[in-house]
Design goal:
- The protein is an all-beta fold.
- The protein folds into two domains: about 210 residues, Glycosyl hydrolase domain, family 43 (Tachylectin-2, Chain A, 5 Propeller); about 200 residues, Sandwich (Jelly Rolls).
- The protein has no helices and 38 strands.
- Strands 24, 26, 27, 29, 34, 35, 36 and 38 form an eight-stranded antiparallel β-sheet that branches. A six-stranded antiparallel β-sheet has the order 28-37-30-31-32-33, with no helix packed on it.
- The model has no long low-confidence stretch (mean pLDDT about 95).
- Bound molecules: (Z)-L-Arabinonhydroximo-1,4-lactone.
- The site of (Z)-L-Arabinonhydroximo-1,4-lactone (6LW) has 13 residues, from strand 6, strand 10 and strand 15.
- Belongs to the glycosyl hydrolase 43 family.
């Protein structure tokens, strides 16, 4: 199958079939719009169609720490409606969204009560009883954060109230963090599939079977039925899967990372979505090992800014549902970002809600560029961001082009005189061999920050990409690259993203 199925930071995938169509949803954490949705007619090639969370109030991510917010949706179709259950971690908590069409509009989100935990799945039996199965977690008290295993309640989906106390179901083979449960009725049996081992290198998928949605469940003798742990597979952290039946067989959609460099220790793009096939032997799934797809064509996306034309579905802001600071009608053909009134000396991209519009880095080799006009008083540019404490920036203003590497307490800058007029700024990423580091390159990639094109291109700084990975930032998210304003008004005439899979 095509892998990655969805490139760049798209973790916790969930999939559903409706007629001849397939729909896929992913986590979005502190980013807005939330819960990206994709459509496919073959469960292999996915096209973005929108988001569940498009309005203020549906989630409460305004102040969540990085990696908090929207976790692990489950997408299902029942009674003529699309259903999404999801956790808005450290925000609104466990939520149910519904929509008649996957493209939306989606409901405001009903808060579930009596099912404390994360990764809520939703399933119905033949009588229409609704089961919410989740990874139980102490959300308060002295034991806050303690995992309680996979639990379940029957749920009244009109009120969001659990109809019983949580019951423990089955918690895997004893690996850490049993989570991401999905419950299915398949050919008369009930299956409970979970992730265990933690979302890092030990990640795996395990499955159990029972006669009813409430169990009892018996684990598959071959558990974990899928994992890349302790292998040198180019995709690591494989786990957190969801199943779908196609006309030609079964597909598992799951998350994984692509850690680069010789040590395979650092993953620039965080957790992405992958897919593989499976068959059934004696009532248990046998999952086929997937490989990265070779020779995929490069991608170029050039965004131009015209009044009245929506930016593409890929554009994200940080913890910000409304973006009055981003306007397309101030100057024809230019996007204008208006900076916040920041404290003197503050670093713009350190803000909880930076004036930033970005898109996911989706390829190992990538280049982002934009033509930036700061006028006489503005300051702004491009940033590749993990979170407010981990970002590399290149900005122009006040007569200088300034590159910045911001890593927790480290704030290193390099400044060179700026050319007159609008400046083309760029950020590139390349794997160690392409960067001239040879096979012994320990890093995953090199990030270069500069300005100008062709013979006039000037590299202002080059930085080891290791410090901007899900592994070093201990983050659930991935790299997001885009445009920001640091002072005054900053105008962008285009933004180009180029990506190569090699
Ligand atoms: C998610 C959990 C996990 O809720 O990470 O990989 C958490 N698994 O299932 C956030 O993505």
């Amino acid at each position: 199958m095509l892998n990655p199925a969805v490139c760049g930071f798209h973790p916790d995938p969930s999939v559903v079939r409706v007629g001849d169509d397939y729909y896929l949803a992913c986590s979005s954490f502190e980013y807005f719009p939330g819960i990206p949705l994709f459509h496919s007619t073959d469960a292999e090639h996915w096209t973005p169609i929108g988001h569940v969370v498009t309005r203020p109030g549906q989630i409460a991510v305004e102040h969540v720490p990085t990696g908090g917010g929207v976790w692990a949706p489950t997408i299902r179709h029942h009674d003529g409606l699309f259903w999404i259950t999801v956790t808005d971690a450290m925000g609104r908590g466990a939520l149910i969204f519904t929509a008649e069409r996957a493209e939306g509009p989606w409901s405001d989100g009903l808060a579930m009560q009596g099912a404390p935990g994360i990764d809520h799945d939703i399933a119905w039996d033949a009588d229409g009883a609704c089961y919410v199965t989740f990874s139980g977690l102490n959300l308060e008290g002295e034991d806050i954060g303690r995992h309680l295993g996979i639990q379940q309640v029957r749920m009244d989906t009109t009120t969001g109230l659990a109809l019983e106390e949580p019951r423990s179901l089955w918690s895997g083979t004893g690996l850490k963090f049993p989570e991401a449960p999905h419950l299915y009725e398949i050919d008369g049996a009930w299956y409970l599939m979970i992730a265990e081992g933690g979302t890092e290198r030990g990640h795996s998928i395990s499955i159990a079977r029972g006669d009813s949605p409430t169990g009892p469940f018996e684990g598959c003798p071959a558990n974990p039925v899928y994992s890349h742990r302790s292998t040198n597979h180019p995709v690591q952290n494989a786990g957190h899967g969801d199943l779908v039946r196609t006309d030609t067989g079964w597909v598992v959609i799951l998350l994984g990372t692509r850690p680069g460099g010789m040590t395979q220790a650092f993953a620039p793009m965080g957790r992405e979505t992958f897919a593989t096939t499976l068959s059934w032997v004696d009532g248990w799934p046998v999952v086929d090992r997937f490989e990265l797809t070779a020779d995929r064509p490069p991608v170029t996306v050039r965004t131009t800014f015209d009044a009245g034309v929506d930016l593409g579905l890929e554009w994200l802001s940080v913890r910000d549902a409304d973006r009055p600071w981003a306007t397309l009608d101030a100057r024809p053909g230019w996007l204008r970002l208006h900076a916040a009134d920041a404290d003197a000396g503050a670093v713009a991209m350190d803000a909880e809600r930076p004036r930033f519009l970005g898109r996911r880095q989706q390829h190992v080799t990538s280049r982002c560029a934009a033509l930036v006009d700061t006028g006489t008083t503005g300051v702004g540019g491009l940033s590749v961001r993990y979170d407010e404490a981990h970002h590399y920036d290149i900005e122009v203003g006040g007569g200088v082009v300034l590159a910045r590497v911001r890593l927790d307490q480290v704030d290193q800058t390099w400044a060179v005189p700026a050319p007159d007029g609008p400046v083309e700024l760029w950020i590139t990423t390349e794997p160690p061999v392409a960067a001239g580091l040879g096979l012994a390159g320990m890093t995953c990639d090199v990030v270069r920050l500069g300005y100008g094109t062709g013979d006039d291109a000037v590299e202002v700084a080059a930085m080891d990409g290791r410090y901007l990975t899900s592994d070093t930032t201990a983050s659930f998210t991935g790299r997001v690259t885009g445009m920001y304003a640091a002072a005054g008004d900053v105008a962008f005439e285009h933004f180009t993203y180029e990506g190569h899979h090699g």
